[in-house]
Design brief:
The chain is α/β, with parallel strands linked by helices.
Length: 343
Amino acid sequence: MNSHDDKPPRPGAGENPWNSARPRSPGAPRPDKRERERLRAAATTGDAAPRRYSDALGGAKSAPPRGGYAGAARSYGASERTDSAAPLPPRPETQQRQEELRLFGINACSAAFAKRPQDLRKAYLTQDRIEQFKPMLAWCVQNKLGYRVVESADLAKLTASQHHEGICLEMRRQAPLGLAQLLAQLPVAPAPAVLVLLDGVGNPHNFGAVLRSAANFGVAGVVLPQGSTLTLSGAACRVAEGGAEIVPLARPSADEDTLALLRGAGFTIAATVPRDGGSLYAQALPARVALVFGAENEGMSADLIAAADRRLTIPGTGSVESLNIAASAAVVFAEHYRQHAAA
């Protein structure tokens, strides 16, 4: 009786990567359905080198993983079983999303490309933006980067926004500085400088508006809390209108004492509160000041207010409880600029 290898090939068998598969070892169990489907998918898509059934059963030494999700799971010591309680590393596309930022809006994209063109990964734009972004498209061609001319509706889906303004860039995300790194970049005391501390702020539009005002009034940096999930998003960058590329972001490391480092660099800690603080316009603001702003609803923590060196309140009619964080920040930045930098 002829063996499997002795049978004449079926029509089209020469293109079948399984035509060289060997029979299972005597008594070896047949791979389960999940393994058979995985092997079949690998053979038909070409995403991984096909393994023989005997290799899958341990009868022969298989080639080392070629990377990808399954290989990454092994390299991190995670179980290969999908029902394992052990955490799996992110899929490549998820990791890519974490490392890249999808920007949209004319000013946000123009500022990002002008400052760091080397971080551009891909561009999408509508037909009517081609002339405006010709230098960027030339850069893409020169550096073999992809770009696509798409419809406005496609950009709306891509950015999850109707405010894309006909342009979207995929840019490599910049990691925040450590607080000590940020302070090292500033002019030394007693030179004027403003830093912003955000406590509990999570709304990307408010974040973007703060960055826009900060850029306009020369704020030296924004400090994010250690445990905060707040980060730059496409929406925040669009609202910032280019300010996200101008104002540095810092996130203190676990071993950095934020308030101690700021005071050591000559900064006064000033908490902005809706009431019971000194009037913003009735006092001279410190030349070097770290302004603390809290979230819309909860405000800043009581401990942080207590730890501040002074409290500032923006006077008004009292018809509403307070300004939102973006408006408050703009008012305070403008007053510090008037006192220390406007001349």
